[in-house]
Amino acid sequence: MNSKKEAIEAIKKKLKGQKLTDHEIFALMDEIGHNRLGPILTTYFAAAGFSQGFTKHELVEFTDAMVKTGKQIKFEGIVADKHSIGGVAGTRTSMIVTPIVAAAGFKIPKSSTRAITAAAGTADTMEVLAPVEFPVDQIKNIVNQTNGCIVWGGKLGIAPADDVIIQVERPLAFESFDKIAVSVMAKKIAMGSTHLVIDIPFGPYMKVRHMKDAQVVTEKFEYIAKKFGIKIKIEVIPTDESNGFGVGPVLEIHDVLAILEQDKDRPIKFEDRSLRLAGSLLDMCLADVVDRNSLPVVSQSGTGREIAEEVLKSGAALLKMREIVKAQGGDPNFSRSMFKVGKYKFELKASTSGVVKAINSKELNGVSRILGSPEDKQAGMKIVKRLSDKVNKNDILAVLYSSSKWRLDEAVDTLMQLPMYYLEK
């Protein structure tokens, strides 16, 4: 049986809920990764995985096959990495964690995705500052020069099957927990990661809605990481709203730069989440350092969290971000004023008085996508009122931006049908 026929038979088996052999899994990933299966059959596989799920052994084999059917990058020594499984609107923690960890003396080659279900992915947002598409050799040069990078993994040829599967998932905006774990771990293994922190937000409007689901996802990540010798820390964080003020690439860059510049009006919840993740990652890395005196002075003593705070407050993280942006071909002299929002805007106002009881993050992401995000970098939403805020009638709850009048009108119509804010008197 040739490889394509074997892959098709494997899809049929999985649709029936049957286990796949290692050989079938490799054939399936090889066919998908090299675009020989086509979008229809790939969609059948994605749907089968979503409905039937995989055994622990299958998870490991799918991860291994994704890695082996693509390119791999190797770095010397400790290689740090961080990933959030997403679903949180306007929380670009990778763009804070990466320069902090790099400035603290550790390599952190951050390969990110573009948005699947959110209004923007890290790669979409970083693209406001600098190019994010590079060949493998150039990424190695950037990391060896600056200790870090923030790039899009979609054109690297790393875990190529994952990139193809993402393309068929995007229109339906769904991912299974199994697929999330395999996708993330395959990319991290292929990027040479040795120490990894995973951010799992859970809440009523997140991808992971309940603590019991977070525990299931945690076990999947830990199992795969152990099999591949990666040290991992899972941070399960209750999340009921966006940690930042902006949703959409330019608006999210405003938040990122406000934190890096330590502006007095920066989003503190966003900053605290970033410091928590950076601190956990640094603690893991520091535990495996033979001689801390070989690190930058800031990292020679203290906990990971203390080091992360000092790197951020001292301006070292901002300086490191400028280095990374320059190495990736962007303007290192960036400032928030350089990045404008869409010229068409609408102020969403409260129709009654009360207290903000809930903000639907899925609607927030969905409406921002209608506005044009992430393709339209200037589109998105600025959150004005947050959870527990008191609101008077006609107070501004949020401001919508788009480069298209038609898209703005569509988004406003959607909000009238599907409310994003819930007020309690």
Task: Provide the descriptors you would attach to this structure in a database record.
single chain; 3-stranded parallel sheet; Aldehyde Oxidoreductase, domain 3; 3 domains; 425 residues; alpha/beta; Pyrimidine Nucleoside Phosphorylase, Chain A, domain 2
- CATH fold-level label of the largest domain: Pyrimidine Nucleoside Phosphorylase, Chain A, domain 2
What is the average per-residue confidence, as pLDDT, rounded to a whole number? Answer: 92
CATH superfamily of the largest domain: Nucleoside phosphorylase/phosphoribosyltransferase catalytic domain
Helix content: 40-55%
**Percentage beta strand:** 5-15%
Bulk shape = globular
Q: Which segments are poorly predicted (pLDDT under 50) over 5 or more consecutive residues?
A: none
The sequence of SSEs as H and E is HHHHEHEHHEHHEHEEHHHHEEHEEEHE
Task: Sketch the major β-sheet.
Answer: 4 strands, antiparallel
What is the highest CATH level, the class of the largest domain?
A: Alpha Beta
Q: Please tell me how large the radius of gyration is.
A: 21 Å
Organism: Candidatus Roizmanbacteria bacterium CG22_combo_CG10-13_8_21_14_all_38_20
Keywords: Glycosyltransferase, Transferase
Domain Pyrimidine nucleoside phosphorylase C-terminal: 355-421
Pfam family, one: Glycos_trans_3N
